[in-house]
Amino acid sequence: MSSEETAASTKATPEDDGMTWWYRWLCKIAGVLGGISCAIAGVWNCVTVNPLNIAAGVWMVLTAFALFLCEVPFCCQFIEFANAVAARADKLKPWQKAIFYCGMALFPVFLSFSFTTLFGNAIAFATGVLYGLASLGKKGDAVTYARLQHQKQGDEERMAGTTNGAPE
């Protein structure tokens, strides 16, 4: 094996995060829908006189842009740095994406609490929740859990027998 093949095999791929293909697509679709809802609600939120609503609307449009840039970079093909940002976003762990998306979605709600900001950011926040759930990992099977419980019970019985000084 050459050094290039070794380096390529040790490199972290997006497939190493434990997400199945369908869950990865679910997260991407939720990101696209979240971007669409943020963009529409953000533009609608900017049609006002209140400066906090305008700031929240601009932030929502920026959130939509970030979601599109990270999840579907082919929508931003005329932006030179889109592929570089998307490649960097793919290297992030799911919990990092969860914090980023949830934080981006919560800021406008705190800035200007209204139905538009709340419902416009709901799907973007749900995308962050999906990535957060992905960071928890897969659910274990019942057989492995039963083995662990049986082993733990045996260890506890052995410990109880040795602490008394005499076997029971």
From TrEMBL:
GO terms for biological process: vesicle-mediated transport. Pfam families: Cg6151-P. PANTHER family: CALCIUM CHANNEL FLOWER HOMOLOG. The chain crosses the membrane at residues 21-44, 56-86, 98-131. Its main location: membrane. It is a multi-pass membrane protein. Belongs to the calcium channel flower family. It comes from Seriola lalandi dorsalis. One of its GO terms (cellular component) is membrane. It is found in: Endomembrane system. Keywords: Membrane, Transmembrane, Transmembrane helix. InterPro entries: TVP18/Ca-channel_flower. This is Calcium channel flower domain containing 1. It comes from the Eukaryota.
